[in-house]
Amino acid sequence: MKGKEFYQILKERQAAGATDLTAATILEGAEAGEKFLLEGEEKVRVFADSYTEPQVFMERLGRSPKLLVFGAGHVSMPIIRIGKMLQFSVTVLEDRPKFADQARRAGADRVICEPFSQGLEQVELEPDTYAVIVTRGHRYDEDCLYGVLSREKESGTACAYVGMMGSRRRTAMVRERMRELGIAEEEIRRLHAPIGLAIGAETPEEIAVSIFAQIIQVKNEAERTEGYSEELLDAILEGYGSGEKTGRAVLATIISRQGSAPRSVGTKMLIREDGTTLGTIGGGCAESAVMQKAFQMMRIPESPRFLVTVVDMTAREAEEEGMVCGGRIQVMLEVTGS
């Protein structure tokens, strides 16, 4: 597949809830730039066996992470802000209008101001959902936890992360209560409680950092890239829909890295012909060099629509540019749009 067809099918499959997707792009030869979307481990293995590295970039896709926060008290505010900073889609459940307004001001994408049980019914729990239970009281925490675990059991779909705030003694009591309510032991063991990494956090901001340290640890243990967000796919497909050259853009994807390059394999950035961008591959002179190549691809008629480039940042060059890391990244550039 090339171009619009690939992105349309990918959007449809992700919207349908597909979670075991792999995108493959041929990097060399006459078919360079051809893309395939595979579903399931068996198909991935068969395809991988038919090519040898570095001819094909195989990318197991993860969807954009979703943060589900129960409660909008003082600890929740930095959780919301950090979640947005880390590009999570943030939903907050809070039954008090005044506190729900605080969550909106903190930048939450969606705030449901209803009793927790009713609010939870309006939210999809998916494999890319990170649930953080930090309500105003133990009774509410327990009700929210049971709601999440029982919904997981009913749907057969587990969240990526479920964490609940509380002391060791209190969380031990909650675990016992979950057993009494019929929650399986394997599900109870998945609970992160007390929530967060043990870094001696005291203030709401420090607690939020400890929680996200744990969430990032869990998220990055999954061998998947950040994938194609809904926003990114919409932006790419909008370019195809315009029917004009101004709809063109270049999608830059990091396909390998060495050293201490700032962003991971699979990180994507959309560079539009008008100079606007969506996402980042790390900033600094490395990103600037990639953008210049992208503009050449869009503006010079004889330029290829697909290429792989290497940006090599030595420690000295990185230091001169004010960056804290160097390294070497290999970036795949693809012209998208009309």
UniProtKB/TrEMBL annotation:
Report domain XdhC- CoxI positions: 247-299
Which Pfam family, giving just one, matches this sequence?
XdhC_C
Query: Which positions are tagged coiled coil?
Result: none
Start and end residues of each XdhC Rossmann domain: 67-215
Check the record and name the InterPro entries matching this protein: MoCofactor_Util/Proc, XdhC_CoxI, XdhC_Rossmann_dom
Q: Which residues form the signal peptide?
A: none
Protein origin, superkingdom: Bacteria
List the PANTHER family.
ALDEHYDE OXIDOREDUCTASE MOLYBDENUM COFACTOR ASSEMBLY PROTEIN, XANTHINE DEHYDROGENASE SUBUNIT A-RELATED
Q: What is this protein called?
A: XdhC family protein
Q: Which organism is it from?
A: Claveliimonas monacensis
